[in-house]
Amino acid sequence: MKGVVIKSTGSWYDVKAENGEVIKCRLKGLFRLDESKDSNPIAVGDHVTIDRTEGDDTWMIEYREERRNYIVRVSPKHKGARQIIASNIDQALLIVTMANPRTSTGFIDRFLVTAEAYHIPTIIVFNKQDMLDGKAAKKQEFVADIYKKIGYKTLFVSALQPETLKPVKAVLKKKTSLIAGHSGVGKSTLLNALQPNLNLRTEEISKMHAKGMHTTTFAEMHFLDFGGSVIDTPGVKEFGILDFKTEEISHYFVEMRALLNNCKFNNCMHENEPGCAVRQAYYDGKISEERYVNYLSILTDYRANYKHWE
Ligand SMILES: Nc1nc2c(ncn2[C@@H]2O[C@H](COP(=O)(O)OP(=O)(O)OP(=O)(O)O)[C@@H](O)[C@H]2O)c(=O)[nH]1
Ligand SMILES: [Mg+2]
Ligand SMILES: [Zn+2]
Questions:
Q1: pLDDT score of 31
Q2: By CB atoms within 10 Å of each CB, which of 110, 136, 192, 296 scores lowest?
Q3: With a 6 A CB cut-off, is 228 part of the ligand 1 pocket?
């Protein structure tokens, strides 16, 4: 029987089978496939075939179809390993907050690089509008502007004010959407506001550190009454970048992509090379300082941590 993985706890997998039933499954012993660098061979969103042998009532995942795309996080335990958060998604909603907790553009850009690599459209949702003070509002305008200018859709909502969520509902309809962001930005609260019967666990952020409590611990797909599905995910500190070559990173910065043919050297990394069109655009104010600096930082980090993937 075929189905889609809607939850994975490491040892058990919930599979929504094609007959509509949710079935608890195990993974075949040596199910490692070819992706030894993944710490999880099966992720939410995977299309699988399940079966059970006669005389045994445990369902087993026998086969996983190739993934159309996926989003990875850096494994909290060791940086070289990646953990697939979810696969086969139509779009991502990156939930961000300017304060309590603070989301940096560095974090946003790491996510966008991964998403761009797989052509996953990303909508940046600025949550907690009800608690913005003057300073945070200014910051938000500055940050949102960076992304609007280069073509990303931005939404401004408050999960505590359901009337602000109409545009979110509109983008979620009929699609499979990944809901991502730091712990405590309000991912689960937002989903509960859209569909109260989901009853997802939420928790106040720590007053001491203004950080989330890592309340959602496993990614899980939920089906929406108004059509479509969402994958609520645990808050992450850092998104991973995939196993592409260092010179490809700039391809996933949308505003840089258009300039790449204008660099003097075709293997230009846009650092200090002469005749670099990207660096020139940055000097001319056409590429924002945040984006350029984040690009360099991702490049440096990638060289240090992911060399063995190349
Ligand atoms: N004031 C205000 N508080 C919000 C809003 N959205 C969420 N919160 C609060 O923020 C806290 C964290 O919300 P959660 O939904 O648990 O956050 P999460 O992103 O799911 O966090 P993890 O599951 O840990 O990744 C809760 O106390 C929510 O009530 C908002 O729009 N305004
Ligand atoms: Mg949550
Ligand atoms: Zn260049």
A1: 61
A2: 296
A3: no
Task: Find the 96 Cα to ligand 3 centroid distance in Å.
Answer: 30
Q: Which atom, in ligand 1's list, is nearest to the CA of 202?
A: 16
Reading the block at residue 15, the tokens are 């599979």
Per residue in 40-90, pLDDT (tens digit) is: 789 999 999 999 988 888 999 999 999 999 988 877 666 667 788 999 999
Where does residue 278 rank: exposed (0-12), middle (13-18), buried (19+ CB within 10 A)?
Answer: buried
Q: Is the CB of 234 under 6 A from ligand 1?
A: yes
Q: How far is the CA of 197 from the centre of ligand 2 (A)?
A: 15
The most confident of the ranges 36-40, 82-86, 168-172 is 168-172
Domain-embedded: residue 212: yes
Q: Closest ligand 1 atom, CA of 234?
A: 25
Q: State yes or no: pLDDT of 283 exceeds 80.
A: yes
Q: Which residues contact 181 (CB under 8 A, 6 or more apart)?
A: 94, 95, 96, 103, 187, 235, 236
**Which protein residue has the closest C-alpha to ligand 1 atom 8?**
186
Q: In a mutational test of the pocket of ligand 1, which residue from 98, 107, 202 has the highest number of ligand atoms less than 8 Å from its CB?
A: 202
Number of domains forming the structure of the chain = 3
Give the mean model confidence (pLDDT) for residues 87-104.
97
Q: What is the value of pTM for the model shown?
A: 0.94
Q: Tell whether 51 and 89 lie within a shared domain.
A: no
Q: Which of 14, 36, 64 corresponds to the end of one domain?
A: 64
- Supply the pLDDT for residue 207: 86
User: Residue 122: is its pLDDT beyond 90?
Assistant: yes
Q: Ligand 1: which residue has its CA nearest to atom 30? A: 128
Domain boundary among the residues 232, 261, 278 is at 232
Tell me, using a 6 A CB cutoff, whether residue 215 lines ligand 1. yes
Give CA–CA dist 310/308, Å, rounded. 5
Relative to beta strand 122-126, strand 153-156 is: parallel
